[in-house]
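dumping this here before i forget
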Amino acid sequence: MTNPFLEPSPLPYSLPPYAVITDDDFAPAFETGLAEHRAEVEAIAADPAPATFENTIEALERGGAVLTRVGHVFFDRASSDSNATTDALELELAPQLAAHDDAIRLDPRLYARVRTVADAVERGDDDVAGLDDEQRYLVRRTLRSFERAGAGLGDAEKARLRDLNGRLSTLTTQFEKHLLADTNDLAVVVDDVRQLDGLSDGQVSAAAEAARDRGLDGRWVITLVLPTGHPWLADLTDRDLRDRVMRASLARGRRGGEHDTRALLLEIVRLRAERAELLGHRDHASWVTAGETAGSPSAVADLLGRLAPPAAANARAEFVALRAAAGRQEVAAADWAFWADRLRAERYDVDTTAMRDYFEAERVLHDGVFFAASQLYGLEFAERPDLVGPHPDARVFEVTEGGGRPVGLYVLDLYTRDSKRGGAWMNPLVSQSALLGLPPVVVNNLNVPKPAAGSPTLLTLDEVTTLFHEFGHALHGLLARVTYPTFSGTNVFRDFVEFPSQVNEMWMLWPEVLENYAVHHETGERMPQEIVDRLVASRAFNEGFATSEYLASALLDQAWHTLTAAEAAAVTDVEAFEREALAAAGLDLAPVPPRYSSTYFAHTFAGGYDAGYYSYIWSEVLDADTVEWFEENGGLSRVGGDRFRARLLGVGGSRDPLEAYRDFRGRDARVEPLLERRGLA
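structure:
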């Protein structure tokens, strides 16, 4: 058989042919893809004809088809279903791919050609007069990407930059692998089911299933999630077990031994700072934010600094209330969620544990997530069991509109497993491009514990929120309609990418949507309206904690990445640095640890959010302002949905995001709706 990546997929929507893809296909496909792309780029760089949009900018967009096909599939598998083979190959590929990218961005011939086209556009020359807005924006973005990558450096600086990029690609890959291994090693094994008191039957079943997967029949395993706080801490009545889970979570990456991540992250910080200085910036955060909507670390600091003091004050007031509710019992980090749930129930008569009975996964997906997208955008979803997904648990849905007009494919991989990294995310499996004639195929990965066969999958309130959030990313990938792959789907500025996904969370509790999916999985009874009203009334409850734990991580990310190269070289103690950074921000609250501590902060040391974790709250300013617009303009309707789709989702990355937002909203976003939402007004 020929390698399945060497030719376009014959399947509907160019879905990768997972039924015939094996791990043995990846290495030779990457080898061929890299060689083909090098030849394509060399032909562009060596072209004796004068540089034009078509023979330079567009030609670059057409290149690398095999490399793109295999890359999409491989990196999804490496994060969602890794094994020894994919781990080894990922470590081998990381410096190769970094070197390949450098060979393109640092080629002086290519840079000169891109510069020639950009100058012609800037001058308004006749030969580029016919370019449309997307093409002109592509020229500017391409030039910007070359310059940010160091195209203007001298030969010696370029050589050092190549070394730094190669080493950093290896280090970040190692960080992810070490973290996954340590997370699996630290899973909490329970010998007596009575210790799981407070969990639902489905959760106990999931813990038993996790134990069976590890060969521990007759026992129960609590697998760790990526954030510090495990969702089951709100339910477990056994205080000792809560403490075991929290201690295991906090220990990741800092126990010594082969999976310790501290040396890795310190070297990552040092090399990122050195690279930033080489590229003409004070620090890594300055280099990153210069290419985002924020523009500078000071703009980020202004927003985070405005939010941190009232958030910390609210968290301290919440802690006092929790201690009163707990009486003589201890309230530490392991206990916060437990007592917060009980205090919420006391104040608002809201039992989030009991709500799981109304959040059966299949109903949430079809009658909640898909229903909202249908009402807003006219989308229709049909499962395609004839199409094989990337894992046996993954399900493939065809997305159409207007009575059958194709939109793309949506893949959902819901359940956790030891081979899947923590958290939840969206990946493209096929990136939409009119130039290449490709429709979108996107996948959502979540980490919901899988119950035993025959048991329903009941989601927590947080898991329902996560599903709506990640589907917002999927909608961005499915609905963007661009010509050039550079702008496909979620290929937007990092501090804008969370905006559409956060907006999609609003529909989770929207009356028509909630009424449609929140049905008791046994009785068929709809969630009573009084429960809904109390839940809505309690939405600002515990926001001091939620905002503080997030801001603590965002500020840690900034603290690490606003170090100069000399300052970074002087840091040797990760824990001491964390303590000092949190104290300086006023967020050194022992019962409120950061959502992600440095040693397991995958977003910033492996996930592409380096110096960019602030983007969640930055995007939430736009999100809260957009929610206000929908509330004022008909709510869940095709009119509002079509406007949001046409002016924001549909443009992908083909337009400046803040210009697109102003086109949608009619003005810049106001921060007041965010402050009100989080109880910080």
